[in-house]
Amino acid sequence: MTAETGANAGGGVQSVERVFDILEMMASARGPIGVTELADLAALPLPTIHRLVRTLVNRGYVRQVPSRRYALGPKLVRLGDSATQLIGSWSGPHLSSLVQQSGETANMAVLDGNMAVYVAQVPSPHSMRMFTEVGRRVFLHCTGVGKALLLQLSNEAVRSLVTRTGMPSYTENSLTDPETLIADLEVSRRRGYALDEGEQEIGVRCFAVPVPNAPTPTAVSISGPATRVTVESADQIGPLLQRVAQELATEFEKDAAL
Q1: What DSSP designation does 128 have?
Q2: For tag attachment on the chain, is the N or C end more exposed, with fewer CB atoms within 10 Å?
């Protein structure tokens, strides 16, 4: 085997790992990127990057734009749609359990670059309820799921992330200072859940917890009108979220063992 296609020390296939590294770098770039930039980011020889990118172009997972730079290709959309459907199918029963016991909307989100992206939701049966479109990307500092994702990072990583994204204010309750956010996260760690106290939308409260040992940082939440989802309801909702997060963690472990 050549160095490019051989197995690495962790048991993976090096060329496959490099392909996914390239796709993730393109996604993080938020726009077309050149092969020289990719080579610098990946710390790989330019000819290696050329070969890998050309293969991805031929397969439709990467496209070359008129500037001769490269961007993610349309074929990834189908994979993303399929992945979202699968996530929804196996997480649905767990989120439905949250809805049945709390009466409010349940969500699951993952960390995608510098943002949270909702990957599954089961709505509340109430006519007045919270709804977030699956696939929606949101900032981390002002959402329950976002804060639960940040709980899985070090304080330095949190500071670095919010420096890159900024901390836009959506309501008078939004946190806009990194140190205030980190203090809020420390409180969340002690009490066992993250809280969005009308920080993205006035009148909405959201409780969220991380899913332990997920392959990518993952969080689940319950959200609803603050008149129903009260601070006192944390005594009921917190344990519910922790139980379902552990159930989801078990599902991830089963998948990893296959």
Answers
A1: S
A2: C
